Amino acid sequence: MTELPTIPNTRVRRLPERGSYDRELAYPLLDAAQIAHVGFVVDAQPYVIPMLFVRIDDCIFLHGSVGSRMLQHLATGAPCCVTVTHLDGLVLARSHFNHSANYRSVVVFGHSTLISDLQQKERILLKLVDALVPGRSLDGRAANRKELAATALLEVQIEHLSVKTRSGGPKDLDDDMNLPVWAGVVPLQSAAGAPIAASDLNPDIRLPSYLQSGVYAA
Amino acid sequence: MTELPTIPNTRVRRLPERGSYDRELAYPLLDAAQIAHVGFVVDAQPYVIPMLFVRIDDCIFLHGSVGSRMLQHLATGAPCCVTVTHLDGLVLARSHFNHSANYRSVVVFGHSTLISDLQQKERILLKLVDALVPGRSLDGRAANRKELAATALLEVQIEHLSVKTRSGGPKDLDDDMNLPVWAGVVPLQSAAGAPIAASDLNPDIRLPSYLQSGVYAA
Predict the structure, then answer these.
(1) Structural domain of residue B107, as residue ranges?
(2) Residue B7 has pLDDT above 70, yes or no
(3) Are the C-beta atoms of residues A9 and B42 closer than 8 Å to each other?
(4) Residues in chain A within 8 Å Cβ distance of B203
(5) What ipTM was reported for this prediction?
């Protein structure tokens, strides 16, 4: 299991050198993101909604209120598209035409179904908490029966996906290389700041270790 | 012109305190973003693709290769959804159930049409360059006739939109306030690094002033 079959609707036709269909490439990109943009269709109208998510094996899990119309729609097995994008830089070429962006994106296609098994729900909701901050699920109060019942949990099987990336500097035409214009890349990244304790937090409670290292370090 | 009419499919039903329909609120959020996630439908399948964009007045402009199947589809006046999300923080509550994210998002609904007038195309492509880096359009070589012909430019009228935001700390149940659990927010932001000159840049060309200040400063 590495490369997915390419089907017409996920083949990257433009600029094929940027395309890939490799789950091994895609999954780390999915796992490094905190939100996905989830697309679905109601009455021929497309919707794109940002959502927290977690990937486990070959599935993406979404959740929300059982009262959400969106989740009610997705619970019917609707086709959906889950897209994750890391924007890595702005590419400034000598010509306007060759301006671009550096990015890594994954577009996932699948159908969503509702998870109703309580134990499975509990297990996956813990993973959703860890997707927000690794290690957090061992801290805090897990969902009780009432909260579990109020939460709709959706599973999207990753049926097809495509990875598209661009990296590196600008690519200009030979004729443009002598233009007196600055060319290069402005790097971009998502950065975490020092954690801010809730104003009503008991001052005896110290910052947990899982917030003291890595991307969360002050 | 401030608040849009709310129509059923853009009304934010869940958590109405997070909803708004105000263009004055939405447009700065659109303008502060470099990419949007664009949703459209082909044969009942939703697609969500990250794209550069620029907003001018009540329109969003997208562009790409005239050979792109996606742009060819959008050029037919297809309904589309353009979503911009700023992820501002991870909200860690004492209960898993109340974990959340701070964010500001705009969901735009409209139909896309092709712009074929050459002068209008030239003018809007300059704005697209400035949307990437303000001030950049005055630098570099503008698109020539061949490049203009190779570029498909799409206009999406902002027919309806909804703004949804969350800010501030965690909201826990009274019963959970005494749990010995750290609660608060991990702030997140998109950060620009120091510009990196192209490896083949003439060393006599200095970093332009529009890259020396604000978010681009080293």
Answers:
(1) 8-87+101-169
(2) no
(3) yes
(4) none
(5) 0.90
